[in-house]
Amino acid sequence: MKNSEQDSLRQAVRDRYGATARAATAGEGADCCAPSSSGGCCAPVPIQSTLLGYSAAEAAAVPEGANLGLGCGNPQAIAALKPGETVLDLGSGAGFDCFLASTHVGETGRVIGVDMTPEMLTKARLNAQVHAEAVGHRNVEFRLGEIENLPLADGAVDVIISNCVINLSPDKARVFAEAFRVLKPGGRLAISDIVATADLPDDLRSDLSLYTGCMAGAARIDALEQMLQGAGFEQVRVSPKDESREFIRDWAPGTPVTDYLVSASIEAIKPG
């Protein structure tokens, strides 16, 4: 894919999720269905967190407006976060997973969210102020950047989490290479994402609204495994969740997307 094509896709994603953030800030909810520059609705249909594997207590533990319901799983469930660790969230949105991670790593830990959408970053930083007042310390920060070009130094973090974001990247191999770079030796990936169990038909793959809606850009499981191993990761494991087809169906009603797509947990380790 040419750089210009990649840039066009990133801009379409940025436009769509910028609209999501603006609508949520305006109190219209995250499921704004006003047409965006790329057509269609501005994001997948928001999902109740409990359907994604979060507990009711987790959903209630974050600032109001941090949970936009746009994930496809719960990376916290596989991250096994420990006090004092530094965590990076790829595509952190309004900060939901960052704030949950901050409670696990505690005051001695640190959480960094990276997102390329300015409107999301603004919303996340406002939420961070509320979170800091609630927990009594500040251990969460948000940085503007692309997940293919992370604004972090080499070997800076212990754990990388992400929730339904890497499928949106037009250069996933670069994402994993950057993830490997910024992880410390022995660091780990704990990701929830949409993956393809079979090749999507051309009409679905070329649908921009399905791409920005977290579907058409999904990579096949075997391709993801190869990219992770090519980046240097070991102990790569991709675990599909068949039950996720129930909510993925609602993202694109009337289309056969669930014949090809499923949510999965993706885990990997950087050698120590």
TrEMBL record:
GO BP term (any one): methylation
Domain Methyltransferase, residue spans: 82-232
SUPFAM superfamilies from the UniProt entry: S-adenosyl-L-methionine-dependent methyltransferases (SSF53335)
Family indicated by similarity: Belongs to the methyltransferase superfamily. Arsenite methyltransferase family.
Catalytic activity: arsenic triglutathione + 2 [thioredoxin]-dithiol + 2 S-adenosyl-L-methionine + H2O = dimethylarsinous acid + 2 [thioredoxin]-disulfide + 3 glutathione + 2 S-adenosyl-L-homocysteine + 2 H(+); arsenic triglutathione + 3 [thioredoxin]-dithiol + 3 S-adenosyl-L-methionine = trimethylarsine + 3 [thioredoxin]-disulfide + 3 glutathione + 3 S-adenosyl-L-homocysteine + 3 H(+); arsenic triglutathione + [thioredoxin]-dithiol + S-adenosyl-L-methionine + 2 H2O = methylarsonous acid + [thioredoxin]-disulfide + 3 glutathione + S-adenosyl-L-homocysteine + H(+)
Top EC class for this record: transferase
Single Gene Ontology MF annotation: arsenite methyltransferase activity
Gene3D superfamilies, per the entry: Vaccinia Virus protein VP39 (3.40.50.150)
Lineage, highest ranks first: Bacteria, Pseudomonadati, Pseudomonadota, Gammaproteobacteria, Chromatiales
Keywords: Methyltransferase, S-adenosyl-L-methionine, Transferase
Entry EC no(s): 2.1.1.137
Name recorded for this polypeptide: Arsenite methyltransferase
